[in-house]
Design brief:
By secondary structure, this protein is of the alpha+beta class. The protein has two domains: about 5-140, Fructose-1,6-Bisphosphatase, subunit A, domain 1 (Fructose-1,6-Bisphosphatase, Chain A, domain 1, 2-Layer Sandwich), CATH 3.30.540.10; about 150-260, D-Maltodextrin-Binding Protein, domain 2. The protein has helices at about 5-25, 45-60, 90-95, 165-180, 190-200, 210-225, 240, 250-260, and strands at about 35, 40-45, 65-70, 80-90, 100-110, 110-120, 125-130, 135, 140, 155, 185, 205, 230, 245. The protein binds D-MYO-inositol-1-phosphate and calcium ion (3 copies). Its EC number is 3.1.3.25.
Length: about 270
Amino acid sequence: MNLSQICQDAIAIVKETGIFLKREVEAFDKSNIEYKGAANNLVSYVDKEAEKQLVAKLSLLVPEAGFITEEGTIDKHSDTLNWIIDPLDGTTNFIHGLRIFCVSVALVKGKEPLVGIVYEPNLDECFSAWQGGGAFCNGKPIKTSNVESLQDSLISTGFPYSLAGKITDHLTILQEFVLQSHGIRRLGAAAVDLAYVACGRVEGFYEYNLKAWDMAAGVLLVTEAGGKVSDFNGGDTYLFGGQLVAGAANVHEPMRNLIASYWKNVEL
Ligand code: IPD
Ligand code: CA
Ligand code: CA
Ligand code: CA
């Protein structure tokens, strides 16, 4: 497989959907909100329409690949190769008209991302990577931050739609990051958070209860840009396990240690 070529072709497809999102946010009417089982877990026709566009075009690009998608508009799974798609990452921002959202698409073999694209249409920034090929923003190479300590870092995070049973751990960890870094940001789109780790705008990102579509493209961006990713134990269960800590080379381990010392279910 020519990953570089697949990446270039997929970028064009992902950008078309990003432009669709940018157009739709202008006229979005909140009477179109639907709920996914909880009052704070929002979705709309835009998420589903964006996913259908991506599936139709990516099916033609790599016909043998299956799909793992947030909105479940296609039932075609492969045991080896899948497109993992978040058609609109940052739905809550989108619905409120806050212009921080993106399209996130990855081609994944097993649990190993081969190609990853995160397109943020509001800033017209397209982050892309393929395995072994480096990471790019609008075609220019990007690197994670070379900051040497957590103290000099800006850290982003997110909160899952359900914090049940974990709110105390989460707030303690948040408090420690506020005290031990330059500060905390909550952008509202995990794939944007990861793209920003990859290009050094923030030094690290952590969250739990993430889904594969929130992470698949972004983790490849981070590793190809020179950063590190793991679950809270330092293992590699993140993609389908939900816990993710991603950071610049010098910051990942201090972040992971901080999280692990307050996260009750993590064995130290
Ligand atoms: C959500 C966003 C958010 C993160 C949530 C995700 P969605 O994805 O990435 O930043 O905190 O955990 O579910 O629902 O907007 O695609
Ligand atoms: Ca998402
Ligand atoms: Ca989404
Ligand atoms: Ca969602």
